[in-house]
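hiii so my PI (J.) wants the whole complex modelled not just the main chain, which honestly fair. so below is everything: two entries, each one labled with what it is. i double checked the lines twice but i was tired so who knows lol
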Amino acid sequence: MKQLLSLLLGSAVSTSAMANDTAAFPFDIPSMHEESKSAGISHQYDGPWEFFVGGGAASFDCNGDRRPDLFLAGGTSVSKLYVNRSAVGGVLKFERKKVNVKTRDIEKVLGAYPLNIDNDAHMDLVILRLGENVILKGQGDCTFRKANRDFSFEGGRAWTTAFAATWEKDAVYPSMAFGNYVDRTAPGSPWGTCQANRLARPRLDEQPDYREPQALEPGHCALSMLFTDWNNSGEPALRVTNDRQYYRGGQEQLWWVTPGRIARQYTASQGWKRLQIWGMGIAETDLDNDGRPEYALSSMGDTKLQQLDEEADEDRPVYKDVAWSKGLTAHRPYAGGDGKPSTGWHTQFADFNNDAKTDLFIAKGNVEAMPDFAANDPDNLLLGNGKKAFSEAGAEAGIDKPTRGRGAIVEDFNADGMLDLLVINRKENVSLFRNLGSKTRWGHRPMGNWLALELQNGKINRNAVGAKIAIKTGNLTQTRTIQVGGGHASGQAGFVHVGLGVAERASIRIKWPDGEWSHQYRVFANNFVVVRKNSREPLYWYPPGK
Amino acid sequence: MLCGKIKRCLLPAAGLAVLAAPAGAAEKPWAERSGAVGIVNEMPSGRLSKPELDKLVAAGEKLFTAKFTTVEGAGRPMATQAIIPTKRKAASSKMFNRLPGMDAAACSACHNEPTIGGAGDFVTNVFLSEGFNNADFDTTDPQFSNERGTNHLFGAGLIELLAREMSADLARQRKKALAAAANGNDPVRVRLASKGVGFGYLTAQPDGLVDLSEIEGLDADLVIRPFSQKGVMTSLRQFTVNAANHHHGMQAVERFSARWTGEEDFDEDGHSDEIGAADVSALVAWQATLPAPTIEQPKDAGWAAAARIGEENFTNFGCSNCHIKELPLKSLGFEDPGPFDVSGTLNATQVQQTATYDLALLQWAKDLRRNEQGDIMVPLFGDLKRHKMTDRQIETLGNELLSQRFVDRNIFMTSELWGIASTAPYGHRNDFTTLDAIIRAHGGDARKSRDAYVGSDDDGRSAIIAYLRTLTIKP
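here's the output for the full assembly
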């Protein structure tokens, strides 16, 4: 008990210290203006126990105008599609469009990820459901067709809560991992009855064919998964974060996914350390630009930040937790007065204030009415503070709402170079925050410079999933990786955003999914830039009206 | 009171106190300060009246000629000369260092021929070390640093105004092409041109993509950057902020403050917020209002006659294709901060209200010729465009190994020739003592004109020199 008291006191002191740090935060704090209703989005995620988890969204361009449109999971409510009508730099505007598929295919939806599976001109959508998962093949103009049969994809009957995809070496079509939660039909459910996850790999080169997926056993009630090149080998492994609420003897997982071979789980003998958390969301970044990414894992209580340990090597994934030293634990609400532990869901690294320092967003919210956890649990906006750590700025930014956040999208919806934010809330309307810039006594002003990058990989894996981008300004090199997966039941495809601070130009190099490095492209700040593989010069994109 | 605001213009007579008391004014008169830092403590805004502009310009001159001292923040022991705030790996052992800087106590230490704001001799050359942000060099080997002569600043306000109007023109052309491509659902290839200067072509796609592979002589964002020998600086403001750090170790708030670097005293010299935005505005105002150089009519009849022939030859040889004698300017309103700078240099979106320095208030500007449309004809002898200056035979001007801010080693902005008679020596390295020599060094895009000059007879070449030597800066 003494030890516990000491820990609690320590936490309280540290929380206070962190608040002081925030007060002295020297960089710009973005003003996030909630405008979901005026933007025309009326949507909430709802449903009984099965929908305590999930609540995701997919952001992607469904009509060819390069602007991010939204598909929102509804739980027992019907999922909705919103087409982006925001003017450049203006207020956010979305227009609902009916999804032209059978209603039953977009009900009982927990999450969604955009993924161009068949390498055509249109983004497809993978929908995670309670019951059969559904692949909607994009057909242009925000229309879709159910493609489970076309792709020989058996959607199963599981309770699917996580998804990730990658193109394995020389593959024409992506490999897709589905993370499942509790097997409700198993004896003793829900405790200790986590369903196996599945890895669906393409069998043919001529067309997508996902028959005979591999069961990834054991499953530990996955709530997020991500293909990640953790050892910079060019061969992504599958990282899975699992909910200890229901597993017995489970842990976090890393699967070794080698082309042509059965996926295998990394074991303790290979250095994998048992970590048991209420894993809800994964976000990846490379904070120290060493080619070995770090992972933020949201949970109940403290968020983890996993970093390769000194003992690790190329085939020994030994991780340590560095969240405390980085000020990233976000273990209790920073506002609202509820001192109980937090419940974290969607996690995403991004640069909200364009200062060339990585920030972390965490959606927060009580599972439903868990008495030991905070009921008023605002989302976090942890801004990089220039001291290789983070400072909480959610309150100053204006995202400290008493909502129960789940999935989220961090995206520049109005093409002004500043990242906006959509949060799916349980039993409440979504939150849609427009980033106004930093507040001054006379209004708002833009923050640092930025770039938005789109990669075009060619006929296969058109959106360059797995590509790494190195962005150099002065002596600073930032990296971004194009991934499908992670967060909490939410994914996005489109321009990759990079904050540049005071740099007015940047040199970028791309490691394409096949491992080939591009030459150096020289680009100017505050532009949307499109790079086609093997092109001599990048193209620039101008949103309509700019 | 309609008063462009340096705020204290609202004050009565003491409104002359438009300029705040300089920092340290309460100190002993022999205090080792320039006395100029902090001289303007309110950002100017709105359209300044003539007296207000005069006061701001006077403050700017004081700052431009100030010999900054360590007492007020000169030096940058832990910051490099890089444009992006960059820490040194170890504290510099020297306050002054000819190569990585700091290399001058005052702006006017180099910009002083034939008068303050002018150019400098070879001895005032400065060194760039693109890509070597942490290094202190002991060598002038051009594989490590590019050497640059000091340019004069006379007429610089007009140059920036021309560049802004041209950048706006090009952006309009891009927008129009994109609209046409979208409306016609077909790619549209358009020639980019402004004020008669062509910048190649762009192709707009119906989906909003723009192919810029055919543009010439400017950057892909279509912003004309008129300053520096490479044409890589957007504005006097950007140039001022860069130079204050590089040459003097005086770090401007608008780039080096905690807002951008996280530190109050980025260079760790014990002084925070060394140059405020209002002081930078004063420096900009002073530079922007420097009079345009002129064409002086020689008193010597022989020289006058030769110059007349030289003027014709200048056109006939093709020199004026790039060294365009005049470019038309629509407005003399100099907005500060400007529209094309990006974060790191204060720009129009970062302030509540910009200031306008109306150059039309100045007699020298009133004296400029206007064309039939009422445009002010700026006699710059330039095109604000970059050109390749070497070829296989003539490669003297390609004597560097490093590109500078994305511009290849042998590509330079057309030098504006106005004032050239007052600013010898010549060339980007200031290493040509005669006009004849620098003309002969022109290769690449200028090869044809250079050959016409070289192929002319002695009188023809002499006439060109006679003409160029009438392009003067009046002290």
